[in-house]
Specification:
This protein is of the alpha/beta class. It has 6 helices and 6 strands, in the order H-E-H-E-H-E-H-E-E-E-H-H. The chain has 3 domains: about 40 residues, no CATH class; about 110 residues, 3-Layer(aba) Sandwich (Rossmann fold); about 35 residues, no CATH class. Helices cover about 40% and strands about 15% of the residues. The strands form 2 sheets. The protein has a 4-stranded parallel beta sheet with strand order 2-1-3-4, sandwiched between helices. Strands 5-6 form a two-stranded antiparallel sheet. Helix 3 packs parallel to helix 4.
């Protein structure tokens, strides 16, 4: 394996490359990784779990599935977190943080020793941010989208969280529906 791949990629500069590899192996072995595992290609898994992001609540299962696939392909998976942009919980808006997330993704991919990266995220700001970051980091990358937001139902109607929330709220504000009905809709917009 060339010095530009796996654990030897992007070595910390202590003035002695062999020492840098030795120290990396030591720290990695303290995490239960064997020397044989550390000779494999390293595949980063950029993950964005957050208790403030309902679109990413399936993240643990997806990270585990990707890790199994990476192991089965003969490489070493290494998951790492980046910023998560949960739309309705960010002020003033998630768009403000999209570029920050792109920079975070880029720098974490570039700074850590990985030969490729799988980015796991969802939402309309997260996916572009991850793709922008990976393109700038210039490391082979693939995007795994967490999937669409699960919808709920109300009176036999399938609800779309971002469309129907405004429609029902407008009806509530206009006095067409009562508080108890808007409370039920609130609990069913996203499943």
């Amino acid at each position: 394996m060339s010095d530009e791949h796996g654990l030897r990629r992007g070595l910390t500069n202590y003035g002695d490359q062999d020492f840098a590899v030795y120290l990396r192996r030591s720290f990695a072995r303290s995490m239960g990784l064997s020397r044989d595992m550390l000779e494999k290609p390293i595949i980063g898994i950029a993950m964005t779990p957050s208790d403030f992001n309902n679109c990413h609540r399936t993240m643990p299962e997806l990270v585990e599935a990707v890790s199994r696939g990476v192991l089965a392909s003969g490489a070493l998976p290494r998951a790492f977190p980046t910023i998560s942009t949960g739309e309705v919980f960010l002020n003033p808006t998630s768009m403000v943080y999209r570029n920050l997330m792109a920079m975070d993704t880029e720098e974490m991919v570039r700074a850590q020793p990985m030969d490729a990266v799988v980015m796991i995220g969802g939402c309309d700001k997260t996916v572009p941010a991850q793709l922008m970051g990976a393109a700038s980091a210039d490391v082979p990358a693939i995007q795994l989208v967490t999937g669409p937001m699960s919808t709920g139902h109300y009176k036999g109607e399938r609800l779309g969280a971002c469309t129907d929330c405004r429609r029902f709220w407008g009806r509530f504000r206009a006095g067409e529906i009562e508080r108890d009905e808007i409370d039920v809709v609130e609990g069913r917009l996203a499943a």
